[in-house]
């Protein structure tokens, strides 16, 4: 039987992305959700992807850039190794969304699909909602709750960080 880990308060003053373990206890209890083969794509179906491997992180990002880029109060991301990712169908278009990062989307329908930081070429984030079966990948923490919209709240007890890496 899987036992849920108790809520752990994150000391935001000492939070450092490099020290956050890639998966917390809740994610470990759902290990079946974090490795395997994953397929997804955009709304119109022109851009498709397939990933085989292990998910490094699963998170909600409440940052303003994700809100604007997604047109949504929060974006759910899964972080994975670029080596296991294949774009199939039409290649995604990209946009240099900051001095150090690029966002990928479908040029035909506009669906947000991926985020990649220039200084971390070995990993990429995909939007969980673009998976064919997004229920397989549940976020394990909230990032950038400092810009969470006051009218948007979730009832989970996941760790909440004031900030995070610049997704
Ligand atoms: Zn599309
Ligand atoms: Zn973000």
Describe this structure as you would to a colleague.
The structure is a single chain. This protein has 167 residues and is mostly beta strands. It has a domain at 33-60 and 73-138: Metal Binding Protein, Guanine Nucleotide Exchange Factor, Chain A, CATH 2.170.150.70. Helix content is 7%, strand content 34%. The protein has 2 helices and 10 strands. The protein has helices at residues 25-29, 64-70; strands at residues 35-41, 47-54, 57-61, 75-81, 85-89, 93-98, 101-105, 112-117, 123-127, 141-143. The strands form 2 sheets. It has a 7-stranded mixed beta sheet with strand order 6-7-8-9-4-3-10. The chain has a 3-stranded antiparallel beta sheet with strand order 1-2-5, with no helix packed on it. A hairpin with a 6-residue loop joins strand 7 (101-105) and strand 8. The longest helix has 7 residues, at 64-70. The protein starts with 24 loop residues before the first helix and ends in a 24-residue tail after the last strand. The model has no long low-confidence stretch (mean pLDDT 87).
